[in-house]
Fold each of these.
Amino acid sequence: MESINHTLFLWLNAPEHPSVLALTLATFFAEQLIWVVPLLIGIGWLRGSEGNRKAMLVATASGLLGLLINQAIGLAWMHPRPFMTGLGHTLIPHVADSSFPSDHLTLWWAVAFSLLLQRQPRRISIGLALLGAPIAWARIYLGVHFPFDMFGAISVALLSAWLTLRAAHWYLGLSFRLATAIHHRLFGNLIRLGWVRE
């Protein structure tokens, strides 16, 4: 299996001298696009209905659980990144920790799959899920992940999205009340002006 992983990596990894366009796109997908997740959740909370806000909380829980599962996997089984074994070309700096599964992609897909399972907002969640593919490609292209790291990420993301939705009755009520109280404390003036939904 590891030989297949290495073969796929070398097929997808950047050449020694990639084009400026490919490098720019890959770097954007690999490092910058992830900021869409907190931005989307923030906007969904500030402008959304109660239902949308609860969906954002469940999606946040899914992302956090996915990252927690990844940490446990990394502690139990250390899988070196390509550059740690001298394989391929590495075009962005990265700490030399366990590569499996990809934290970037786990967070991205855990949120996307959670929103998909909750069926709101449908178009955005489908778009998020599809954008996971170029993120996966970019992380491999730039030399910081193996292809199997992405399969691990999709598995963890699906599991965390399912678990946090199934267990929502245990935590959603309390977390919603707490988040709402913080929201009113932080945005009270803007709520009174009508700029932010109560």
Amino acid sequence: MITYYDDRSVQVTSTAVRVDGRTYPLAEISMLWHRRGSRSWRVLAGRGAIGAALAGPLVAAVLGVGLAVWLHRSLTVTVAIVGVSVLVGLGVGPLADFLFEHLDRSYARGSRQLEMWARWRGQPVRLLRTGDALRFGQIYRAVQRAMESGQAPGQNSIGSSGSIAKPRSRP
């Protein structure tokens, strides 16, 4: 038996797909497809907040320099305002790395609910529903590989968004 994917709630092997304790033998699955849900506004708002957090200190630094020039104060006051503004702008560096990491993870997880469906014993069954796009892709590809390795040449079994497609042959 070959294990294609394994985490605490999903296991894909050369014989079956197990999701949350429920087992679906590959021999009983005749088709596989996926569906994408609508975008999550909560995720998009979170990305916008991260973008604003990245831009905020830089905008404050530019406004501080502009304010220093506009006030026409003594050279000492102008230099102090510009110096503080530049320090605020430079303070973004360490924070930016942290924020960019969160932004990158946000895109890896995705902004939609993704569902994996299969025709099992002649009936459509939702195998998995998750908002984590990276994990979903790994699981979906694992099920595809498991199905491709166990089928006869020329058999149709794997579809995308509801359509049946012939599996790709490997070189």
Amino acid sequence: MWTLKSWQGRLLPHPLPPGERLRSYATWCNAVEGNTTFYATPARSTVESWARQTAPDFRLVVKLPRSITHEGRLTGVDEEVRSFLETIEPLGPRAHALWIQLPGSFAPTDLGTLAGFLHRLPRSHRYAVEVRHRAFFDDARSARLLEGVLAGVGAEWVPFDTTTLFRSPPTSDSEREAWAKKPRMPLRSVALTDRPIVRYLGRDDTASTIEGWRHWVGTVTGWLREGRSPTVFIHTPDNADAPTLARRFHDDVRVLLPEVEPLPEPMPTEPLTLF
């Protein structure tokens, strides 16, 4: 999520070799969703490049490949998991959590499969699970059962907040595409661990996006006061200004909690000159 074309030359320097784009992004934000790993396990040399471009405290939330979560549905995939874990090993502490995004068809009746899968994973990593079946949100018993499975291995439940997107009809092509593809997820803001992860999807209109995240500013501030270390990802349908918005969210939290450290100054998009 650090190579978006619309960022090149506007938020990130251009031209910039692919092996330097994450380094530039990391001056904007101190965390990123490793979404590309969902489509295929990368080459180890690629992962080594990610590690070289980021500081040890940079947070990559790395998604497990769909061959494990969607095609294999967590069954008979031990060899694929082993290979994936070996590949991402160069990240070291940068692998903040391994993100297990499950398909919408993964229901409460599948919780036994999830429990078995999580218990087979090495404890050397943190795990975060994103579910999309409505029963986990609409049925209190199903939610409690999932929380119990996750608590048994210290895993987090990742909320994907799309309530702002679906609050009113789409007004742009990217919003219409998001309406067709993104899940209509109810709001959930309960942290299970000391490292909660939030995914928030706003609108292409900046004011609407900011208004929609007010709840999260208060929630994240509360988590910080409790001693937790949350990670928040800010999206819009076109993501054109996502890094700028992420910094704005960080600043909004700092208004309520000034002791939170500011983010670094972004790398300039143009080379510095003397005149």
Amino acid sequence: MTFLALAGLLGAATAQVQAQDDDMRQDGKGNHGMRFERADADQSGDLTFEEYAATIDARLANADTDGDGRMTVGEIADEIVRIRAERQARRLVRRFDVNGDGALTADEIENRQRKMFALLDRNDDGMVDRSEMPRRGKGHHRRHRPQ
């Protein structure tokens, strides 16, 4: 393996490890993240090196798009972008998919937009002015998220 390929692999693995480390940390209640549960293939409550490595390997499996046995920076970057885009798309579908069929319709999107707009329109005048917009900046870290 050439130095460039090794460096790319190590960089991708480091990024994946950091992301998984964040996902696998315990929250304040002692609960493990969902990815920990998926990585724990035998559901033993702990991860072996093999289980941990398999999780990272699965994420990088599609990165070698030209099948030459090497993952270039471009291939790894493309895979990371694809993974992030799919994650964001799943979140979007979960938030807007009213009927739970796993797909979005124009009606579901418009319905969600109307709900979000109604929450912003605090004085119910059918318009949102600057004073009704959620504040950003120091002391206002909570996002305005309608249910």
